[in-house]
């Protein structure tokens, strides 16, 4: 089931005007920032279908950027986020993309700074709820109903075991897990859905595990 | 966990509890939280709704100037004249529109189930409140009942205009309000289900065609329709009128109709009212570009 809580329906509390185009967009931006792990200095944002046609009217542009700045959907600073980004010297470019997509409210965010970049596709499925469907070229199937840990790692033996050993030590149960790689021995992604939110201490330890490149978590 | 309205109603009937109670127990179970924690979270939403209505009745205006002030106009009319549709009905209309005026003015609202349709449920709630004099707990329960029905729609169809048109937004929101009014007024779970079905049936096919892509025209006034239809449907159900087509089948019909809608009528701002001479002119004025 896509929605599992009554507060997905009655809620979220948010700044208007649109739950999918404003609140959802802010959450996609925030997810990108969290996964990138730092503030980007530039962002190229591709918008598709309904997002592309109405982003100005709905404030999708400032909501996405607000998310990139780290704001939540009910943060009153959201409406000024484009100006704030400019003040902080973050270059933002919006591209109305006519490519075919599976969901009418789709955004592709490519963000980065001097030390690296990240590409993420998010969809806003209604009522402020979002799904992240792609990360750095990897397809994701996250239900969003449970906290998740995303682990970019090098495709080497022992990488997965080193992660699961740490989770086991902290008695964190895995509900769903996927491993994907670009090619043998190349960049790979572990997606782990767990039953409880993961403490920062656990993340720190995971980061220092064998063959791990970068870690991010998504709270449910 | 219930997946359909039929299952929701059956759970309430077998246990001899209200629909709101089914939703509350499920939420406690899924989130592993206490009743107090869940009540508290819903109380916060209720306060946001209350505050939005207060703000609206003092008068708000959107940045574009397209919407705002109508909630105040209606309240004034209610005081000075004798409204044909009655005070309770117009109060709901005024508060539903007001909530959406606040939304359009980028104020703080609670999405129910979306921002564009955020007026229907609170509009109906704060109008029937004047007649039914509910306790605070009953008002919180109203939101759980509305949420239970929205939960079924969201999981079996859609609640966003971009996915399924305005029938998915204001249609769902009005229907959720109708079901919740029935429970607050002392009706049965089945009557809630009938009220929901009768509201949504009358919203089927409603397209999402926002002028200039803004959540203003016609969204604010469609919230008036959603909340008033909710009250009418609740009264019909309480009178014993039933829906010939079962509630879940109405939701299924809404889903299939939404799937058949062209994208021009699903929140792209390209068809319907957005594509009228005046709609196009307004867009040009606001954004300085032609459609």
From TrEMBL, chain A:
Residues covered by the ACT domain: 148-220
Stored PROSITE patterns: ACT (PS51671)
Stored NCBIfam families: sda_beta
Catalysed transformations (reactions): L-serine = pyruvate + NH4(+)
Highest taxon in the source lineage: Bacteria
Cofactor: [4Fe-4S] cluster
Pathway the protein contributes to: Carbohydrate biosynthesis; gluconeogenesis
Keywords attached to this entry: 4Fe-4S, Gluconeogenesis, Iron, Iron-sulfur, Lyase, Metal-binding
Pfam families per UniProt: ACT (PF01842), SDH_beta (PF03315)
Any one of the GO BP annotations: gluconeogenesis
Protein name: L-serine deaminase
CDD domains linked: ACT_LSD
Keyword match Iron-sulfur: yes
Keyword 4Fe-4S: yes
Family to which the UniProt record says this protein belongs: Belongs to the iron-sulfur dependent L-serine dehydratase family.
A molecular function GO annotation: 4 iron, 4 sulfur cluster binding
InterPro entries in the record: ACT-like_dom_sf (IPR045865), ACT_dom (IPR002912), ASB_dom_sf (IPR029009), Fe-S_L-Ser (IPR051318), Fe-S_L-Ser_bsu (IPR004643), Ser_deHydtase_bsu (IPR005131)
TrEMBL record, chain B:
Keyword set includes 4Fe-4S: yes
GO process terms (BP): gluconeogenesis
Name by which UniProt lists this protein: L-serine dehydratase
UniProt KW keywords: 4Fe-4S, Coiled coil, Gluconeogenesis, Iron, Iron-sulfur, Lyase, Metal-binding
NCBIfam families: sda_alpha
Any matching Pfam family: SDH_alpha
Entry's EC annotation: 4.3.1.17
Keyword Hydrolase: no
Catalysed transformations (reactions): L-serine = pyruvate + NH4(+)
The organism of origin for this protein: Oceanobacillus picturae
Record-stated family: Belongs to the iron-sulfur dependent L-serine dehydratase family.
Domain of life from the UniProt record: Bacteria
Pathway: Carbohydrate biosynthesis; gluconeogenesis
Start and end residues of each Serine dehydratase-like alpha subunit domain: 15-274
Coiled coil: 32-59
Cofactor(s) listed in the protein's UniProt record: [4Fe-4S] cluster
């Amino acid at each position: 089931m896509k929605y599992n809580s009554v507060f997905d329906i009655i809620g979220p509390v948010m700044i208007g005007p649109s739950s999918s185009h404003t609140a959802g967009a802010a959450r996609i931006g925030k997810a990108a920032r969290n996964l990138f792990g730092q503030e980007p200095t530039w962002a190229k944002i591709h918008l598709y279908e309904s997002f592309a046609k109405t982003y100005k009217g709905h404030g999708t542009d400032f909501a996405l950027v607000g998310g990139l700045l780290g704001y939540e959907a009910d943060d009153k600073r959201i409406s000024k986020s484009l100006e704030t980004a400019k003040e902080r010297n973050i270059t933002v470019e919006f591209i109305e993309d006519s490519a075919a997509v599976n969901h009418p409210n789709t955004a592709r965010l490519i963000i980065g700074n001097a030390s690296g970049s990240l590409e993420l596709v998010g969809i806003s499925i209604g009522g402020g709820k979002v799904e992240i469907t792609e990360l750095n070229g990897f397809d994701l199937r996250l239900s969003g109903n449970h906290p998740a840990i995303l682990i970019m790692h090098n495709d080497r033996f022992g990488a997965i075991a080193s992660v699961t050993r740490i989770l086991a030590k902290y008695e964190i149960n895995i509900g769903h897990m996927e491993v994907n790689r670009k090619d043998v021995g190349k960049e790979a992604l572990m997606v782990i859905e767990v039953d409880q939110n993961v403490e920062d201490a656990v993340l720190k330890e995971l980061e220092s595990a064998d063959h791990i490149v970068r870690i991010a978590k998504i709270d449910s | 966990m219930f997946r359909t309205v039929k299952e929701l109603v059956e759970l309430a009937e077998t246990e001899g509890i209200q629909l709101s109670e089914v939703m509350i127990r499920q939420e406690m179970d899924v989130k592993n939280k206490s009743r107090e924690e869940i009540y508290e979270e819903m109380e916060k939403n209720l306060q946001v709704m209350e505050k939005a209505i207060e703000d609206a009745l003092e008068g708000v205006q959107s940045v574009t100037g397209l919407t705002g002030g109508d909630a105040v106009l209606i309240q004034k009319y209610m005081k000075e004249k004798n409204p044909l549709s009655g005070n309770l009905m117009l109060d709901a209309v005024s508060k539903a529109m007001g909530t959406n005026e606040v939304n359009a003015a980028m104020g703080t609202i609670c999405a129910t189930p979306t921002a564009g349709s955020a007026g229907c449920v609170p509009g109906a709630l704060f109008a029937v409140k004047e007649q039914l004099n509910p306790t605070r707990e009953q008002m919180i329960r109203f939101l759980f009942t509305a949420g239970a029905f929205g939960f079924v729609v969201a999981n079996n169809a859609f609640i966003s205009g971009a996915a399924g048109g305005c029938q998915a937004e204001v249609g769902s929101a009005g229907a959720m309000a109708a079901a919740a009014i029935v429970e607050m007024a002392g009706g049965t779970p089945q009557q809630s289900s009938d009220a929901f079905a009768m509201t949504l049936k009358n919203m089927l096919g409603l397209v999402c065609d926002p002028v200039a892509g803004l959540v203003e025209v016609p969204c604010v006034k469609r919230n008036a329709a959603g909340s008033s239809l909710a009250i009418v449907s609740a009264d019909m159900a309480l009178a014993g009128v039933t829906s010939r087509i079962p509630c879940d089948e109405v939701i299924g019909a809404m889903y299939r109709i939404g799937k058949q809608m062209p994208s021009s009528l699903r929140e792209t701002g390209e068809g319907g009212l957005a594509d009228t001479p005046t709609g196009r002119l307004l867009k040009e004025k606001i954004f300085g570009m032609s459609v």
